[in-house]
Design a protein that fits this description.
The structure is a homodimer of 327-residue chains. By secondary structure, chain A is α/β, with parallel strands linked by helices. In chain A, 34% of the residues lie in helices and 27% in strands. Chain A has 11 helices and 14 strands. In chain A, the strands form 3 sheets. In chain A, strands 3-2-1-4-5-6-14 form a 7-stranded parallel sheet, with helices on both faces. The radius of gyration of chain A is 22 Å and the shape is globular. Chain A starts with a strand and ends with a helix. The model of chain A has no long low-confidence stretch (mean pLDDT 97). At the A-B interface, helix 1, helix 3, helix 4, strand 13 and helix 10 of A face helix 1, helix 3, helix 4, strand 13 and helix 10 of B. Strand 13 of chain A pairs antiparallel with strand 13 of chain B.
């Protein structure tokens, strides 16, 4: 029996889900739901496109919706609304608002008898999982999360809003010395500046004052002022040629003590090096979509996160096969 | 409410469990059960010692038993026997016999209405989990497990059985070039010899033929013949001074493709660097003991592995706290 997935929202993440479903024989793609005019949208694999307003008419044909909207304005309303009628998965990533989002979605999903998985991806998501496993195993320790090297969409956008900037790409880069200090087991206290640097590739308009632009970037509060930031001015052609990808990644490291007198140190490290941030996130969403469908078939409902899902639910393989091959 | 843990078997692993319980305020140690004369055994923390034959008399006082016997002869009989009356956790690590052990333990635990977690530790255990998560997320890929640098007890024992050897310590070491090749995303085919080397520190008896010993080690089938092996002869004093620890660790790396035409590569890497292999294994056992008690309180029974346990069950913290701090 195949699990039928539908996509809500067709940006980079939605396209990633479309590609990820193709890699899994037990999943099939029912179609894409969009706020745009469906006839204006051509999907990568030829998947059917429907208007979001018609989605309830398709309720019986869909096992799980993967909601690919943004965390700022889309997901806070879309996920609870859709969870009344569908099993859903989202990638809500505004860390501070997760408790509120969880409460709203949980009420809706329970009302509908559906499973809603929120905050699925890699951070929140796989990184959260690894912080949790590591803390449970080594309670006497400290964990560190580093991001990058990778493109930060939010920081790239912030640079683009500066007067005289045509386009920009910003990379977040973990500081090697900080990583080494953490791996040494000394549990250092690290400032924001000590953990990450920021590197910016900027296309300036003809005749723009580059010194002013560079200064505006480096002193921008929250985004850059607390970091060592490097700015490179390049041409639009160079930007398109050398910085078109959306790589990302990072590290979750926990260093913790064991032994009668805490005399032994142990390091747990999880890292990702992703050529495509949205495609990897989509791949995680699709694995949790499979889990959502299964858990709901078994009678479960309500809001769940990656912390609530037994690993075996993510795999198309049965328990005996997993134990034999992977345990 | 505290979860009461008891230890069966008091070797390195049992001592590790004793130390790990001390680090967790929600757990308490009821005592140690041994086949030896209880009065002959002095525990690290002063925990009570009982004879294993009396264990049923303590049934009502214990929430979970952590069985710290060996996989070769102890666990295949101890775990199913004890699972009829107790929630249990073991670290059964004979990979090829896991399906058989699972079936035996599952029948016993279901009969008793108890939870039995088998094959808990880091491999099998955390490494298995990471192989499974990574395969579910990146189905189009290949995973690699490397062990070390660390002491292999089995290989050290094999050297000690050679005529003229007084003592020995063997380190398994992953080959840097192999790790780099895997991390590059080329999904190389690696032979046994290409993945690990073996380094041996050997104390020879006075007048023993070192050339013969070295040759016997390097040509020993299964253990050494398929590896590049280095042998160092040292004194007993040097062995005790420089090689008394039981460090270990390793790497699970999966490299997998995403994108419409699988054009992007993504690397997931999990690694451990442990000063104390048995203490870390014990720390994992204790976290899963907590989970076993909870799952049984909720009415679950039968044999489980790390693949069947939702991560949040491992933590003493509640869901709202975990979502706020770690998601």
């Amino acid at each position: 029996m195949q699990t039928k997935i539908a996509i809500v929202g067709y940006g980079n993440l939605g396209k990633g889900v479309e590609c990820a479903v193709k890699q899994n024989d037990d999943l099939s793609l029912y179609g894409v739901f969009t706020r745009r005019n469906p006839s204006s949208l051509k999907t990568l694999t030829g998947a059917a496109v429907y208007h979001i307003d018609d989605i309830l008419n398709h309720k019986e044909n869909i096992d799980v919706l993967v909601i690919c909207g943004g965390s700022a304005t889309d997901l806070p309303t879309q996920t609870p609304t859709l969870a009344r009628n569908f099993n859903v998965v989202d990638s809500f990533d505004t860390h501070a608002k997760i408790p509120e989002h969880f409460a709203n979605v949980d009420a809706a999903a329970k009302e509908g008898g559906k499973i809603a998985m929120i905050s699925v991806g890699w951070d929140p998501g796989m990184f959260s999982l690894n912080r949790m496993y590591a803390e449970a195993i080594l309670p006497n320790g400290k964990d560190y999360t580093f991001w990058g090297k990778g493109v930060s969409q939010g920081h790239s956008d912030a640079i683009r809003r500066i007067d005289g900037v045509v386009d920009a790409r910003q990379y977040t880069i973990p500081v090697d010395e900080a990583l080494s200090a953490v791996r040494s087991g000394t549990n250092p206290e690290l400032s924001t500046r000590q953990k990450h640097t920021r590197e910016c590739f900027v296309v300036a308009a003809d005749g723009a004052d580059k010194a002013r632009i560079e200064n505006e970037i480096k002193t921008m509060p929250n985004y850059f002022a607390d970091y060592d930031t490097t700015v490179h001015f390049i041409t639009k052609e160079e930007l398109d040629r050398d910085h078109a990808g959306i790589p990302h990644g990072g590290f979750v490291i926990r260093s913790g003590k064991t032994g009668l007198n805490l005399e032994h140190n142990n390091i747990i490290e999880y890292s990702l090096k992703l050529d495509s941030n949205p495609e990897f996130t989509s791949s995680v969403l699709v694995a949790y979509a499979r889990a959502a469908a299964r858990m709901n078939r078994e009678g479960a409902s309500g809001c769940k996160t990656v912390l609530d899902v037994a690993p075996a639910y993510l795999s198309p393989c049965d328990g005996a096969d997993l134990r034999k091959r992977l345990l």
